[in-house]
Design brief:
It is built from 10 helices and 21 strands. By secondary structure, the chain is an alpha+beta fold. Strand 16 and strand 17 form a beta hairpin. It is globular. The two termini are 57 Å apart.
Length: 498
């Protein structure tokens, strides 16, 4: 019989009693269960092999006849004379198995070899293990579990994954995996989240907004602040959309993408005679819209890989949370004052009127104005002691902000409109992949705060808030449908004033 609670999976495995003390051939612990006794629970079960010194670990749906949903492909060897049933090497192998199985749910299974340092050298390994195992349980619940069990357990597992303890563990796991595997890890999770939301939409059950804490984290290191974020496009709130219906194939293409963003600032502290300057400079702002399924499936069930959302606005706000020591805040970029080229056209028209009338002379003057403008407009502003950074994408034809406007029907069917062939044109405002990069070479502006010298030696807390808008206007696909979605995130980072 399973015990039901919020499990500490790692400690439970570590404290398994010796085989000789088992009264049955298996022991289990409840991962999650429904409040209704009529619904089954999702259990982690450890079973011994009666003919060898090995164990197998499974995740099962605990019906009257248990249904295995996942199991270790290879038996785990035990040490009969060891104080712990599973030694460090076996635990490490189990961890790698869990990581690989999470990655296998993604569209790209060509991941590199996973290597871990010795467990004793990994900080907070227990929390990292629990995070990985609960992530696997979430994916198994979405893809493998019966409907009754899935609806009962998904919220429970999600709440455990978004706890403060496991959020901190996620940073450590991402560091262990490295950037390449981190991206595949998050694509695997967000593919599952996308499928979950689509299932909820199909059954018309209440939708749960995907919480950004599950998909974003901040890191503060010497001289650098970094915020990494991931969110399925389908989980982003809709700001506006056209009244036109969207066909199923286009909807598939739009839904099966995720937003990936990186926010990086350099920071430095300069001690002056009467105050302290705290300065942040833009290092890299990157925003991409990445496919969650392979190209073949996107062509079979969607409208291909060319029609997806694109970034249309990015807004960042940096704020010291405790402001009693702040004296002032400044930005380094003036309000833009673009030069205009004015051309004056004059023409004189004359004609002879009939006899006995005055000579008629008509004079007309016309004026035209041309102005060169980049597709992305950058602005800085101040709100209280908050420094704000904004990037707006503008229509290259009429100069309007894309995020706050809608294209005309004529533009939507015009093959020469700027947003057609937007990822291959020589004048595209995006990367070939469909994202944007704002780097220090062009956007290296800074925000700096004058801080009272009483803050010297203290650790200051800073809030980075951000909003990212994604817009869809048709590219290769013929449709009048268009929409804009928005994501908001918030991270707290720290800076030592010294």
């Amino acid at each position: 019989m399973a015990s039901c609670c919020n499990p500490d999976i790692f400690s439970w495995i570590q404290n398994l009693p010796p085989i000789t003390q088992w009264k049955t051939h298996s022991i289990s612990v409840c991962i999650c269960s429904s409040s209704s006794s009529s619904h089954p629970s999702l259990n982690l079960s450890v079973a011994k092999d009666l003919h060898s010194s090995t164990l197998s670990i499974s995740i099962i749906a605990d019906f009257s006849v248990p249904i295995p949903l996942w199991t270790t492909s290879k038996p785990l060897h035990i040490k009969p004379k060891s104080s712990k049933l599973l030694d460090e090497e076996t635990i490490s192998c189990l961890m790698i198995k869990v990581l690989k199985d999470v990655l296998s749910y993604g569209s790209n299974n060509n991941y590199s070899l996973i290597k871990f340092p010795k467990l004793e050298d990994i900080s907070c390994f227990k929390d990292i293990f629990n995070l990985a195992f609960l992530t696997l349980a979430l994916l198994i619940c979405i893809y493998e579990a019966p409907v009754d069990l899935r609806s009962a357990c998904l919220n429970t597992i999600k709440n455990q994954l978004t706890s403060c303890q496991l959020r901190e563990a996620s940073k450590l796991l991402m560091k262990l995996l490295g950037s390449n595997l981190e991206e595949q890890w998050m694509r695997s999770i967000n593919l599952a989240i996308t499928n979950w939301i689509i299932e909820l939409q199909a059954t018309q059950r209440p939708l749960m907004r995907t919480p950004s804490p599950l998909f974003s984290y901040g890191i503060a290191t010497s001289g650098l602040w970094k915020v990494q974020l991931y969110c399925p496009v389908i989980a982003m709130g809709i700001e506006n959309s056209s009244n036109h219906s969207v066909d199923e194939r286009l909807l598939f293409s739009l839904n099966y993408h995720q937003l990936e963003g990186v926010i990086q600032f350099y920071h430095k502290v300069i001690v002056q005679e009467k105050w302290i300057n705290v300065i942040i400079n833009i290092d890299n702002i990157r925003c991409d819209v990445i496919r969650l399924v392979n190209e073949t499936l996107m062509k079979e069930r969607g409208v291909g890989t060319d029609d997806k959302h694109f970034p249309s606005r990015i807004s960042l706000q940096v704020t010291p949370t405790l402001q009693s020591n702040i004296l002032s805040v400044s930005v380094s970029k003036s309000t833009e004052n673009p030069a205009r080229e004015i051309e004056i056209e004059k023409s004189i028209e004359s004609s002879f009127d009939p006899p006995n009338s005055f000579l008629g002379l008509k004079v007309s003057a016309g004026e035209t104005m041309t102005m060169s403008m980049k597709p992305w407009k950058f602005e800085q502003s101040i709100n209280g002691y908050s420094g704000k950074l904004n990037w707006f994408l503008h229509d290259s034809v009429d100069g309007r902000e894309v995020v706050s406007s809608k294209p005309s029907k004529i533009a939507l069917i015009n093959p020469k409109a700027w947003f057609k062939d937007r990822y291959t044109s020589a004048y595209r405002p995006f990367t070939r992949q469909g994202g944007v990069i704002f780097a220090g070479d062009e956007y290296g502006e800074k925000i700096w705060w004058k801080v009272d010298k009483s803050a010297m030696g203290k650790r200051m807390e800073w809030e980075i808030r951000g909003w990212i808008w994604l817009t869809y206007w048709p590219n290769k696909h013929t449709t009048f449908y268009n929409e804009t979605r928005r994501l908001e995130f918030r991270e707290i980072l720290h800076l030592n004033i010294s």
